[in-house]
Amino acid sequence: MSPAFGCMTVGIVHSPFKEKFGIPRQPGLVPQAAGILELLPPYNCPESVSGLADYSHIWIQFWFHQVEQGAWQPRVRPPRLGGNRRVGVFASRSPFRPNPIGLSVVKLNEVRCEGGAVTLAISGIDILDGTPVLDIKPYVSYADSIPDARSGFAPTAPDEALRVVFSAHAERQIQSRGDLPKLRELIVSLLTTDPRPAYVEDGRKERVYGIHLYDFDLRWRVENREALVLELLLR
Amino acid sequence: MSPAFGCMTVGIVHSPFKEKFGIPRQPGLVPQAAGILELLPPYNCPESVSGLADYSHIWIQFWFHQVEQGAWQPRVRPPRLGGNRRVGVFASRSPFRPNPIGLSVVKLNEVRCEGGAVTLAISGIDILDGTPVLDIKPYVSYADSIPDARSGFAPTAPDEALRVVFSAHAERQIQSRGDLPKLRELIVSLLTTDPRPAYVEDGRKERVYGIHLYDFDLRWRVENREALVLELLLR
User: Fold this and answer.
1) Same domain, B113 and B32
2) Which of A112, A163, B105, B159 has a Cα-to-Cα distance from A72 of 20 to 30 A?
3) What is the pLDDT of residue B79?
4) Which of B115, B144, B173 corresponds to the end of one domain?
5) In this structure, what CATH number is given to the domain that contains residue A209?
6) Residue B198 to residues B22, B78, B193, Cα–Cα distance (Å)
7) Would an 8 Å CB–CB cutoff place B77 in contact with chain A?
8) Does residue B176 sit at the A interface (CB-CB below 8 Å)?
9) Residues A158-208: pLDDT tens digits?
10) B78 and B94 Cβ atoms separated by less than 8 Å
11) Cβ contact, residue pair A5, B52, below 8 Å
12) What DSSP string runs through B133-188?
């Protein structure tokens, strides 16, 4: 079947998250996760974002560009269910969808129009670096916010499952990164909900995990419900 | 420029709203506005909606199929601003967007899988009849609901601007439509926020307006902040 509708790329997200592993599983879970949405020509005129700064939050509709379209299955295994229970693809926020379109509400910190560029400073993101953006919409609280909605298998935010501690080496490395403010808080937020695949057994405590953030691999391991940050390995 | 991504139609919305005029300007404003989302092959298998009934609300991402793609302008005139102030297209929910993709949260009343058909009974809709659906996602309250978000030019739902009254003839017609329960409540909700174009002056009180709903034209006029429903004219 040929596609019914064609979408343009109106912008690109620049994000600390350079690979899928370790990305927060919903927006807003990691407030320190900050990025830039850069509008592309011909959408990058100041007029197109006029009035947007009056909104504290925006919707980003984006394309899961690292997902092969057509690779969807009717049922998926959400990490939230331990990876061993399946639900319908339309009852999940999985990227493996008939149309791999993502939907995230993020905090809008600043709208910048300078030197021909139009960029939005955003945070609370759960979006991969380089993600193509299809649309930006203001978050309209009276319509979009339904605090008492019944939310199936994910009624609340994931628990803070792990205590996060740092090696002395990692602490020194973080302090030397004046270019990345709030890096320590970002790492704590990322690891506290335990980003490991759900099927990992606690017995494999020797294993060192890595997440590609910015220009380094964050390396850590888990022992006794503690995530120990070992080092930031420059790539 | 050629489109970067192609989208499939996964379903179709069957709605009381047969034309753009009169459609609620956001979802949820008219709880009585009920419709059916019908999944299309090959997406219409019961597995794809397994677990969805555990959610009270869903996101529908859809294509504004009556909008010509490419007809967008950097700034739009939202009806909420009286139609005479302009804001950036990305600061509005206007259908005239670079990618005419709509986003509505609606109430999910029932998931029906029978006779090879998979349909969702939905309400609070602001979607035109025949609208192609690109994606369905569960509403996840902990991530999607931000009650205290600052919402620019539309911080609250539109006022109930008009009192709605019915002619004796219209009352009798409504009572004869046992096939359309809650029709009276639907009409009250639709007219109370005054769907007339913002630039209409109160002086034109003689004018009779019509909205194509279901199989009839709802005909009414406005006088002294009252919407008087005249008749339901079968088409």
Assistant:
1) yes
2) B105
3) 83
4) B144
5) 3.30.2310.20
6) 12, 9, 11
7) no
8) no
9) 888 899 999 999 999 999 999 999 999 999 999 998 998 766 555 566 899
10) yes
11) no
12) EEEEEE--HHHH--TT--BTT--SPPP---EEEE-HHHHHHHHT-TTSTTHHHHHH
Residue in chain B lying closest to A136 (CA): B90
Range of the domain at A113: 11-144
For the domain that residue B140 is a member of, what is the CATH number? 2.40.30.70
Read off the tokens for B3: 């489109």
- Structure pTM? 0.94
Tell me if chain A has a CB within 8 Å of the CB of B63: yes
Q: How many domains does chain B have?
A: 2
Bond into B74 cis (ω within 30): no
Q: Which two tokens stand for residue B227?
A: 């919407």
* Same structural domain, A140 and A174: no
The alpha carbon of residue B185 is apart from the nearest alpha carbon of chain A, in Å, by: 20
pLDDT at A1 over 80: no
B42 cis-preceded (ω within 30 degrees of 0): yes
Asked if A10 and B75 come within 8 Å (Cβ–Cβ), the reply is: no
**Angle of helix B183-192 versus helix B168-175 axis, rounded to 10:** 130
Q: Is the pLDDT of residue B116 over 70?
A: yes
Is there a single domain that holds both residue B130 and residue B66? yes
Same domain, A167 and A69: no
Say whether both B123 and B175 belong to one domain: no
